[in-house]
Amino acid sequence: MAGRRDTGLAALAGVAAGAVTLGVGALVSLVTGPTSDPLVAVGSAFVDATPAWLKDFAASTFGTSDKLVLGIGEVVVLLALAALAGVLAARRWAWGATLVVVLGAAAGLAAMGRPDAGALAAVPSVAGAVAGLMTLRALVRRLPGQPRPPRPVRAERRAFLQATAAAGALGVVGVVIGRALGAGARGAQAARAAITIPRPSTTAAPVPAGVDVGVDGVVPWQTPPAEFYRIDTALVVPQVDPSTWSLRVHGMVEQEVTLTWDELLAGNLVEAWVTLACVSNPVGGDLVGNQKWLGLPIRELLERARPTGDADMVLSRSIDGFTASTPLAALTDGRNALLAIAMDGEPLPVEHGFPVRMVVPGLYGYVSATKWVTDLNVTRFADATAYWTDRGWSPEGPVKTQSRIEVPKAGTSVPAGSVVVAGTAWAQHRGIVGVQVRVDDGAWNNATLADDGGIDSWRQWSWTWEAEPGQHELYVRASDPMGPQTGTPADVIPDGATGYDTVRVTVS
Predict the structure, then answer these.
(1) Distances from the Cα of 76 to the Cαs of 18, 73, 79, 445, in angstroms?
(2) Helix 2-32 and helix 93-112: axis angle, to 10°?
(3) Under a CB-based contact definition with an 8 Å cutoff, are residues 495 and 393 in contact?
(4) Which of 47, 121, 295, 363 has the fewest Cβ atoms surrounding its Cβ within 10 A?
(5) Distance (Å, rounded) from C-alpha 380 to C-alpha 204?
(6) CB 452 within 8 A of CB 425
(7) Count of alpha carbons within 13 angstroms of residue 361, beta-carbon side
(8) What is residue 182's three-state secondary structure?
(9) Separation between Cα atoms, residue 396 and residue 389, nearest integer Å
(10) How far apart, in Å, do the first and last CA atoms of the chain sit?
(11) Helix (H) / strand (E) containing 246
C-alpha cells in the first residue's frame, strides 16, 4: 500500500508541475502571441494533422462543441504525461526531466510551425518547461521519505500536499489569466463595437411573410447569429484589427490589387440572404444556417485584377493560415459571392470571421467560407491545393440538395389522427421547388412549401399525416429544378452526405 500511495503522490507532483508549465506558457504568450501558447500550439498541430475521417467523426459527433472536446482531451493527455513525468522523476530524476524537456520541445516546435509564428514563438514553451522542471524538482524533494532532516511522516505528507496544491492552483490561475488577458488585449471586440455599418448599395429583396411555416419545433427561417453553427480550424479565435486589415489579390492576374478596410467600407456593398452549410453535416444534421449578409461582391475585385484566361480557382487564405479552393466561376458568375463584413445588420461576430469573411452561395464552407480572410491567390486546381483537399476532401464542393424532418422528433410518440410533419430543405443557388414525404413503404406525398425567400436560402415545408397506431418511419426528399435528391446513402467524405432523412415515431 505504501508503494502505491507514494506513486500516487509522485503522479500528483507531476500534475501540479504540468499545471505550472501550462500557466507560465499562457502568461508568456501574452507577449509573444496567442498561437504561441503551448496548449494552443499543440492543439493546432493536432488539428492540422487530423485525417478526414477523424475530422468528420468530431464534427458529426460533437458538432460545434468539437473544439471544447478537443481542448478537454488535450488537457487530459498532457496532465497524464505530466503525471508520468512525476512518477519517473521520483524513481530517477533524469527520466522525469527528460520527458518534460521532450514535451516542451514538441510544444515549441509546434508553435514555431504556425503560419503566424514570430521569432519568439517557442519562448512560452521553453519558459513553461523550465518552470515545470523547477516545480517538479521542488515537489519531488518534498515527497515523504526523501533524504532530509527527519520529520513525522504525517507532517511530511501534509507539507507535500500543501505545496502541490499551491503549485497546481498557481498554474491554473496562470492559464485563466493568460487566456482572459490575451482575449482582452487583442481588442477586436472593442474595434467591432466602434464600427458603424454603411448602408448597402443594393438591399436584399423583401422577405415574404410566409417563409416560416409557423410550426412549433421547426427552426427559424432566419438563424439567430448566436445559434449559427461554427466549424473551423481555429482553436484560438483570431483577433484582427480592421484598421490594419488588408486583402491582397494576386497570382494569375494582370494587375495585383490590395484592398484596405476603408476601401471595402466605401465600396458598392450588397445585402443578400444566403444559407451556409458545412460539408460535415450528416443527413438530417444541424450544421446549416440562414442569414442576411452584407459585403462587397468578390467579382468586383477580380474584375480589377483581371484573371488570365487559364485560371480556374481562387485559393483564399485566412490570417491563421487556413486555405480554401473556390472555383473562379463561382466568384464571377453573378451570384452574391461576398467579402462579408456584417451579419444580421451588425458587424460580423469575432468567431464568425470579423472583420471580413467570404460567403459564397451554393458551395460548402470548406471550399468557400474562409473567415478572417486576408489573401486571394488566383491560380489553377492543377497547380494548388487547399487545407481540406490536402486531407482527402474533394477540391470542389457544390452543396447537395438536402432536406430534414424537424417535427415530429425521432423517437417521440404522437396521437393517432392528424399529425403535422414539417422541416426544412435547401439547394443553394438552385432553389427548392418541391418536397415530398413518405410513410414506411408507401407512396410519396407532396408537402406544402412555405414562401420562397430566395434561390440562395433554404425553404420550410409541412405536410399533414393521417397517422394510424403503430411504429412508423417517415422519409423526406426535396427537389430542385433538376429533379429530386438522391436517396442513395453516402458519407460526408469526400464531398457531402446524401440520402433521405428518416424519423421513426410511435403513433398511439
Answers:
(1) 11, 5, 5, 51
(2) 30
(3) yes
(4) 47
(5) 33
(6) no
(7) 27
(8) helix
(9) 9
(10) 59
(11) strand 246-251
Whole-number Å distance between alpha carbons of 165 and 4: 20
* CATH topology agreement for domains 209-391 and 402-507: no
Of 231, 276, 280, which is closest to residue 52 (Cα–Cα)?
280
CA distance 46 to 69: 13
The DSSP secondary-structure symbol of 280 reads T
Nearest residue to 241 (alpha-carbon basis) of 190, 296, 200, 292? 190
Whether the pLDDT of residue 466 is over 80: the answer is yes
Q: How far is CA 26 from CA 19, 71, 181, 277, in A?
A: 11, 14, 10, 34
Say what the pLDDT of residue 250 is.
Answer: 98
Q: Are 338 and 293 within 8 A, CB to CB? A: yes
Helix pair angle (153-186, 123-141), 10° resolution? 170
DSSP 363: B
The answer to whether the predicted template modeling score (pTM) of the entire model surpasses 0.90 is no
Domain extent listing, the chain: 2-186, 209-391, 402-507
pLDDT at 142: 81
- Whether 202 has a pLDDT exceeding 50, the answer reads yes
Output the 3-class SS for 403-464. Answer: EEEEECCCCCEECCEEEEEEEEEECCCCCCCEEEEEECCCCEEECEECCCCCCCCCEEEEEE
Domain 209-391: which CATH number of 3.90.420.10, 3.30.420.10, 3.40.50.920, 3.40.50.720: 3.90.420.10
Q: pLDDT tens digit string along 265-275?
A: 999 999 999 99
Highest-scoring range by mean pLDDT, 73-77, 153-157, 302-306: 302-306
Mean pLDDT along residues 125-153: 76
Kindly state the average pLDDT of the residues 358-386: 97
Q: Are 140 and 93 in contact (CB under 8 A)?
A: yes
The class that CATH gives domain 402-507 is: mainly beta
Buried-state track 244-257, b at ≥16 Cβ within 10 A, e below 16: ebebebebbbeeeb
Q: Find out whether the peptide bond into 361 is cis, omega within 30 degrees of 0.
A: no
Do the beta carbons of residue 277 and residue 365 sit within 8 Å? Answer: yes
CA distance 271 to 206: 11
Q: Quote the pLDDT of residue 145.
A: 60
**One-letter amino acid for residue 377 of the chain:** N
